[in-house]
């Protein structure tokens, strides 16, 4: 399928405008290169990330037999960073036409991924100071609640009435409600009225 405008192949000026638009929309991560398939040279570059120049060899011998749309495929940029690319053949009435290449640099995404992995790493975490947390009854309740939720393959946000009742029974058996104010805390966490919570506790006794 050819890329056409009003029934005719696109002019180079239109192709370069498309290149500028795509590069502007996805700045600073996208470069668009327009290759002249007849001369084998780069005809246009928008948001130059590859440090090539207009008139440089386009390496079109590597694109022999290129389909109308090829990709996405992966390539390595000058800085060693990965790029994901698509190449689009733009035929012309005369000559071999152009190859429109969109190159998406993965650098920002890779940096963000590495930063998240570093931030979320547990290797630098230290054990909780016993002196500070030995009486942290809220955390103990949180642990009991989410252990039950995990064991029952559900999540806190979707618990139905029967599941909440079963969870309260479990917490009662573990002595959670022996701690002052714990019932108020559990009712808030479970999104349950205090009267309903006390009713379940009473039925469990």
Task: List descriptors.
about 200 residues, alpha+beta, Beta-Lactamase, 2 domains, 5-stranded antiparallel sheet, two-stranded antiparallel ribbon, 7 helices, 7 strands, about 20% strand, disordered N terminus
Question: What is the topological layout?
Answer:
Blueprint: E1 4-5, E2 8-9, H1 12-25, E3 30-36, E4 41-46, E5 69-76, E6 82-90, E7 98-105, H2 107-120, H3 130-133, H4 137-151, H5 161-173, H6 182-190, H7 194-204
Antiparallel strand pairs: 1-2, 3-4, 3-7, 5-6, 6-7
Helix pairs in contact: 5-7
Brief summary:
With 205 residues, this protein is α+β, with helices and mostly antiparallel strands. It has helices at residues 12-25, 107-120, 130-133, 137-151, 161-173, 182-190, 194-204, and strands at 4-5, 8-9, 30-36, 41-46, 69-76, 82-90, 98-105.
Q: How many DSSP-defined strands?
A: 7
How many domains is the backbone divided into?
Answer: 2
Overall helicity: 25-40%
Oligomeric state: single chain
CATH architecture of the largest domain: 2-Layer Sandwich
Structural class: alpha+beta
Radius of gyration (Å): 31 Å
- CATH class of the largest domain equals Alpha Beta
Our count of helices gives: 7
Major sheet, described briefly? 5 strands, antiparallel
Q: What would you give as the CATH superfamily of the largest domain? A: PAS domain
Mean pLDDT: 84
Low-confidence stretches: 1-7
Tell me, briefly, the overall form.
elongated
Strand composition percent: 15-25%
Side-by-side strand order of the widest sheet: 4-3-7-6-5
Termini distance? 74 Å
What's the helix-strand series?
EEHEEEEEHHHHHH
* CATH fold-level name of the largest domain: Beta-Lactamase
Domain YheO-like: 12-114
Domain Transcriptional regulator DauR-like HTH: 141-202
